[in-house]
Amino acid sequence: MKVAPGVGNVELREIDEPTTQPGQVKIRVERAGLCGTDLHILKDEFRSWPPVVLGHEVAGEIAEVGEGVTGLQAGQRVTTETYFSTCGQCRYCRSGQNNLCLNRRSIGSAVNGGFTQYVVVPAKNIHILPDNVDYEAGALTEPLACVVHAVTTTPAGASVSPGDVAVIAGPGAIGLLTLQVVKAAGATVVMLGTDVDGKRLSMARELGADYVVNVQQQDGAASEIIRDLTDEGLGADVVYECSGAGPAASQLLTLARRRGRYVQIGLYGKSIAWDMDQVCFRELTVTGSNASIPSAWLKALRLISTGTVQTKALVTHQFDITDWEAAFATFEDRTGVKALFRPVG
Ligand SMILES: [Zn+2]
Ligand SMILES: [Zn+2]
């Protein structure tokens, strides 16, 4: 858990088993995914309210249901949305955009999250895992829901369609999920990575990327591929920045066609230099995406259950929570794609 504000200040601590209040459900955590956000919280680049247990990608079994909860019972296999509370009053809540609620409090940053044995959440956040979705796959529902939101409901993302040429930068978990959703929408996909992404780029190919490019080794290859793919070499219809690396953001700007779309999904943890003039010259539509909305969870679970999106393939590491530092290290040195934690009782 994050025990105090500032850089670092993450440690393993014994905490009491939480009690289940009316309207809430207690989940016995089976798997919890490590996410870039957790790393940003460690480095104090993402807001948190310590002391707080990290982890917002949770799959587990219902241990207890609170008073007044109907339709759910102990023993059910579930995952949970991440907003512990939203105000229900602001303009965003009232228009179904609770990811933008002005008073949103999420598990893993404001309220205790999933890197522990038990997590308590509002019953309305619960989604039952389909029978063919195990805990490993179920723990990836959250990142997939974020991707579904970015690709299907944000202004620049929403219009991806068959025949589009798409470029994705960053073959990490989010990039590889984006790849699969964009492929499912019928686009041709070029995946960009760097020297550290060797394994991840081959994984991208296995998961359906039409072209993969190591931009450090194959200078100019991306623009050449896109020139060949697009009418008159205009450029990509849509680009997705999933790496959270400044150079990737700059390169994607040069690969998008005029009137193309730029979707920002990765977080940088700092401000970056970006040639905003290109947004004017090319009349780009640029939008970002922030977490997910409830409808994206339903779609995410269906995509996993139908096998349209492979989530389990992305799980390269599993750690006991006591080895949390090793898990964070795999993220930092990019030796893995997705690391999952198992709680230790
Ligand atoms: Zn996440
Ligand atoms: Zn609100």
Provide an overview of this structure.
With 345 residues, the protein is of the alpha/beta class. The chain folds into two domains: 24-146 and 292-342, Alpha-Beta Complex (Quinone Oxidoreductase, Chain A, domain 1), CATH 3.90.180; 155-288, 3-Layer(aba) Sandwich (Rossmann fold), CATH 3.40.50.720. Helices cover 27% and strands 23% of the residues. The strands form three sheets. Strands 1, 2, 3, 6, 7, 14 and 15 form a seven-stranded mixed beta sheet that branches. It has a six-stranded parallel beta sheet with strand order 10-9-8-11-12-13, sandwiched between helices. Helix 4 (141-152) crosses helix 5 (173-184). The longest helix is centred in the middle third of the chain and has 12 residues, at 141-152. The model has no long low-confidence stretch (mean pLDDT 94). One zinc ion binds at residues 35, 37, 56-57, 142-143.
